[in-house]
Design a protein that fits this description.
Elements (H helix, E strand, L loop, with lengths): L2 H6 L28 H20 L2 H8 L3 H8 L2 H12 L18 H14 L1 H16 L1 H26 L5 H21 L10 H17 L2
Helix pairs in contact: 2-3, 2-5, 2-7, 3-4, 5-8, 6-10, 7-8, 8-9, 9-10
Length: 222
């Protein structure tokens, strides 16, 4: 042992200036990580999925758009599929209130109420654009379609079926709710995605007047 060794002790086994071992779990907190980080990530995810579609969007791209480390995206949301699920929950949030209108009036007018509520959401550019972006992703990717299908079934159809069961003693409420939703979604695709006339240019009151009785039959006729 040299005098230097005796004065200072043996040199450490590892270089103290080298990188620290990487830990699993939450990434180290940075200036970009704060109360608003999760919201920024979610907003960036909605934009990335809307502009690039599910296939081309990536966690790395979402993180870059949000100004955070990709590890923070994984921390808050998990996988790309889970990020997409969170994004569509937000995009379809206005439509999730549609089952509530079942109980807001008479049984005889439930078809018109549901049609007017749903098309009212589609008519607003602010709520239409995010829903269209989600639908485009779902039409081109099975993983995205499965996520959307699960969300619609859990948050929309099951609730609507429950409201119908409370409203009357009709059989097969879930099947009827699916039929009504399919009718409304088909018209929405023709009007807002394909933009096929005369549906695309018709007044919304005219569409509701024509569609309402059909929705009513699906939901309440025995």
């Amino acid at each position: 042992m040299t005098a230097a060794d005796d004065a200072t002790g043996p040199a450490p086994a590892d270089d103290a200036t080298g990188p620290a071992p990487r830990r699993r779990g939450r990434p180290a907190r940075t200036a970009a990580d704060g109360p608003a980080a999760r919201d920024r990530i979610l907003d960036a995810a909605r934009t990335e999925f809307a502009e690039r579609g599910y296939d081309k969007a990536s966690v790395r791209g979402i993180a870059k758009a949000a100004g955070v480390d990709p590890a923070l995206v994984h921390h808050y949301f998990g996988t790309k599929e889970q990020v997409f699920a969170a994004a569509i929950e937000l995009s379809f949030a206005p439509a999730m209130s549609v089952p509530d209108v079942v109980a807001e009036g008479s049984r005889e007018a439930v078809g018109e109420r549901i049609a007017r509520a749903m098309f009212g959401i589609w008519e607003s550019p602010a709520t239409r654009a995010p829903m269209l972006a989600v639908l485009r992703s779902a039409l081109t990717n099975e993983t995205a379609a499965a996520v959307l299908r699960k969300m619609i079934e859990r948050r929309l159809l099951e609730r609507m079926a429950g409201e119908l069961s409370d409203l009357s003693d009709i059989p097969d409420p879930k099947f009827r709710a699916q039929l009504a939703s399919g009718q409304l979604l088909g018209i929405a695709m023709l009007r807002y995605v394909i933009r096929m006339d005369p549906i695309a240019s018709a007044e919304i009151d005219e569409i509701v007047a024509m569609v309402g009785p059909t929705i009513q039959r699906y939901l309440t006729e025995k």
